[in-house]
Amino acid sequence: MKNKFLACAALLALAGCQTPAQQSVADSQRPPSSAVRREYVDALKGTIEAGNFLKAEISSVVLLNPEKQIYAYCTRTTERSNPNWSYIGLGLQHNMILYLKKDDYRCHDKRLRYYDFPELRNMKY
Prior knowledge:
The chain is an alpha+beta fold. It contains four helices and six strands. It has one domain. Strands 1, 2, 3, 4, 5 and 6 form a six-stranded antiparallel sheet that branches. Strand 4 and strand 5 form a beta hairpin. The protein is globular, with a radius of gyration of 15 Å.
């Protein structure tokens, strides 16, 4: 228990060192397409229990790196076992996932818009 607390404290300290997203990145926000929503749900099928989410939201898609055409978006959910928001950040290049990061600090940016995500909340196996 003590080790978990220390690990969480260290992660929070490191998260505080991150710089906020550039304004141009925040300005590039576009609502997530139905394809983005569908692919995310399809990727999770069979890995989590269907109907486990009480709330589910997906963020706008932003262009992180114009030269490399890297896009990113976030999801946030609350579960029956945890009423607090859980965040996941994803980076995409050429429709391939570059990274998937739990509690990505960029997902907490107040400028990022979130949309209801009923496809995830109502997901079936």
